[in-house]
Design a protein that fits this description.
Elements (H helix, E strand, L loop, with lengths): L2 H8 L2 E6 L7 H17 L1 E6 L1 H8 L3 H17 L8 E4 L4 H11 L4 H5 L2 H10 L6 H4 L1 H10 L5 E3 L5 H18 L7 E3 L28 H9 L20 H9 L4 H10 L4 H25 L2 H29 L5
Parallel strand pairs: 1-2, 2-3, 4-5
Bound molecules: tryptophan.
Length: about 325
């Protein structure tokens, strides 16, 4: 074993992924990517472009998914994910994941999938068209993503905790039937400040309230100027309530040292919203500037090469796990 391989072997295997559904925003940056960037150096990290997962709901938009995948990786790299010390790969380029999905489907009760909270919520939100067989299997496919690399820790948001609970139940069931083969994955939750969008709701591309990593400085400044603030603060000198103001919440992200002063002067009415937003736009752009510069520094060929090399590396590991699983199940290898 080489020195680097030995070192890798002692690091925790971390696995996470995102669906390529569009450009990433400040919410992704603060909620996930800053953490991924750190993990890309400190852990044995695998980061997946979950294109198959995108198809579970957006199967009518293959071109959008295709176009989003390189752009998404560009955002990852911009945020500081290091492709030299982590593995970035394309889910559909690892057919072993799909094969594992069939194998694990044999031990996965349909009722377990149906009771997943995201399943019912999404059907209510998106309509019955979304309720395909593939969509029902979404959390099982997610388990396959993790299990094929024997991922131990999975950095995700709270909304994904139920998926990981289900994943562990399926792993335990598999191991009970066929012997200890798969690893139980655990969530790696990081606390981060809530990131509201420009309208005060959760930042989300679909709400049209996002500040995107790829935006230019003018776009960001305009978005900040259009932000909702405390509706009771109508005039500059009216006292405001920073605790309910999305502008204030974003100051916490990009302008933390100034937040006590801003909170106090907003409350007394000394600080008007126009000035407060002006300062935020400046600080937000300063925070995003090195990220945007890094984003622009990668050309298409480099991004494609990073994904191709990562997928190749990941595939070898996936093949070894799949062999173990098929051996345990007494299937052809
Ligand atoms: N379901 C995750 C999300 O919507 C994306 C995802 C796909 C994922 N495969 C994964 C996350 C594996 C962690 C591990 O955010």
């Amino acid at each position: 074993m080489t020195a680097t391989a030995a070192k890798t072997a002692t690091k925790t295997r971390v696995m996470s992924g995102m669906r390529p559904t569009g450009r990433l925003h400040l919410g992704h940056l603060v909620g996930a990517l800053t953490n991924w960037a750190e993990l890309s150096r400190t852990a044995d990290a695998f980061f997946e472009i979950a294109d198959l997962h995108a198809y579970t709901t957006q199967y009518q938009q293959p071109h959008e998914i295709r176009a989003a995948r390189e752009e998404m990786v560009r955002d990852w790299l911009a945020a500081g994910v290091d492709p030299d010390t982590s593995t970035i790969y394309l889910q559909s380029g690892i057919p072993e994941i799909s094969e594992l999905h069939v194998l694990l489907s044999m031990v996965t009760p349909v009722s377990w999938l149906e009771r997943t909270p995201t399943y019912k919520e999404q059907i209510e939100a998106l309509g019955a068209d979304v309720a395909t067989y593939g969509f029902l299997g979404y959390p099982l496919l997610q388990l396959c993503d993790i299990a094929i690399f024997r991922g131990e820790k999975v950095p995700v948001g709270r909304d994904q905790v139920a998926h990981l609970e289900l994943a562990r139940e399926i792993v335990r069931r598999f191991n009970r039937f066929y012997g200890e083969t798969l690893v139980e994955p655990h969530p790696l939750l990081t606390e981060f400040p809530a990131v509201p969008g420009t309208d005060g709701r959760k930042m989300s591309k679909s709400y049209g309230n996002a500040i995107e990593i790829a935006d230019d400085e003018d776009t960001t400044a305009k978005a900040v100027r259009s932000m909702f603030t405390d509706p009771q603060k109508l005039r500059r000198n009216d006292p405001g309530r920073p605790e309910i103001c999305p502008v204030y919440a974003l100051h916490h992200i990009a302008n933390e040292p100034r937040t006590p002063w801003i909170a106090e002067n907003c409350r007394t009415g000394a600080l008007g919203c126009v000035q407060c937003k002006g300062e935020l736009a400046e600080k937000l752009n300063a925070y995003l500037r090195p990220i945007r510069e890094r984003r622009a520094s990668f050309d298409d060929a480099t991004i494609r090469r990073i994904i191709a090399e990562g997928t190749d590396k990941a595939r070898h590991i996936a093949a070894a796990t799949l062999r173990d699983v098929k051996r345990a199940m007494h299937l052809a290898q």
